[in-house]
Amino acid sequence: MRLTARSFAGRSLVAGALVLTGSLGGCGVLPPLPEPVPSDIVPSAPAGLSPGAGGGALSPDGFDAVERMAVRIRNVGCEELSTGSGFAVDEHTLITNKHVVAESEELEVSTYDGHDITVGTTSTADLADLAVVRTTDPLPSFPELAKADPKPGDPVTVVGYPAGGELTVTQGEVMSTTRDPLNANLGEVLLTDAPVEPGSSGSAALDAKGRVIGVVYAKTADDDSLLVPLSTLQDMLADNTAFTPAKGC
């Protein structure tokens, strides 16, 4: 397991935007209880991706296509402020975690270059920790979805905004499938050793060709990351009843 460009120099003990692994607050994480989320994490300076690392050509500003599809989500909540990540699946649709957008008074979405995106509607799923955010403004880039779930040993790349900071890219591999420890009805999820940090929840997990294979939603006490598999995401996007309008304050 290694950290690539725009990755953190250090690792924390919890995942995502930490409210499952998701906010800078806290609401269900895997036992044992994590230590307090550090407030002094500073990403390393951008160093540029290796050729083909994200499965797409670099833009004139030096960002890869899969980096340009990742967004930072700032949830101005009913009682607290939290951060998370998300990614585009078409020009006006973002995927993230349900816990990233939960109890929101306002969602603030920004792109890799700091451009603010106007949010239209937000819907959340009951079965899995997933949410769909429709945007009024067009999104700069969106990736291809893989044709099938990955297998143990397959490489995985996570692109997101840990701690609500700079864009990071971390790499590892799929270790196994496991029963979802947080959402009993979901079934099988993917276990990987790709590093994630507070704020990574909702990040896209990509294969070696830059195609989406899953969505980061949690981290175990052993510092492994948990993904909602691509197949689950696709099944739920195809089901008109899977998502319902998100409840605000």
TrEMBL record:
A GO biological process held by the record: proteolysis
One example GO MF annotation: serine-type endopeptidase activity
Record Gene3D superfamilies: 2.40.10.120
SUPFAM superfamilies assigned: Trypsin-like serine proteases
Classification via InterPro entries: Peptidase_S1_PA, Peptidase_S1C
Protein name per Swiss-Prot or TrEMBL: Trypsin-like peptidase
Signal peptide (residue range): none
